[in-house]
Design goal:
Layout: H1 3-6, H2 10-24, H3 32-39, H4 43-55, E1 59-62, E2 68-71, E3 83-93, E4 98-99, E5 104-111, E6 121-126, E7 140-145, E8 154-159, E9 163-171, E10 176-179, E11 188-190, E12 195-207, E13 210-213
Parallel strand pairs: 3-6
Antiparallel strand pairs: 1-2, 3-5, 4-9, 6-7, 7-12, 8-9, 8-12, 9-10, 10-11, 12-13
Helix pairs in contact: 3-4
Amino acid sequence: MPRLQRELTSRQRDFLDYLKNCINTGSGAPSLRKAAEDLGISHTAVASLLQSLQERGWIRRDGRYSRSLVLLGDEADAIAPSGRTVPIIGRVAAGLPLYAQQEWAGSVLVDRSVFRGEQLFALRIQGDSMKNVGILENDLAICEPRQFAANGEIVVALIHSEEATVKRFFYLGDHIELRPENDNYPVMSYGLGEVLIQGKVIGIQRGPEQMAAL
């Protein structure tokens, strides 16, 4: 792209610096709501700034959920070479099932060498039913999109097309069991048409320096 088309106004440059700082500190790209609150501007203004940066070739928004954000060009150097951003899509229960939410909640920077799958997404964990395998309240579950699962895999399951939960999956012929990793919670049993697999949990991030693949 010609340099003239990539030039930014001072407001656009300040916004780009804000995005770069968010990603560099490990919090990932902010949600529209968070950016608007941090900068004291409207959601519409944030959306307009994002569009301007994308048109000028400074950022890319793509992926399965279309709201993941990647810095391009000169700004790409701000992200560690092994890093990649993964969109955070709402919250999911690791306890009793939680009503499925598709709200975008920003993004998180993960290690590309550890998390290599395509179209990854992250979910914020609510509850402690999987604590025995190290999945705790407020963790980010890094997930690979899937519509199938093998017995024993930890999955994101959608129940009755409404409730989402993280559990171990078991297909037992005439029914499906979703098993917790905490003795305080019961095994959940469902008919074959009641559960849809949304993804496989491949890792957990608890903070900028606490991330592990499962």
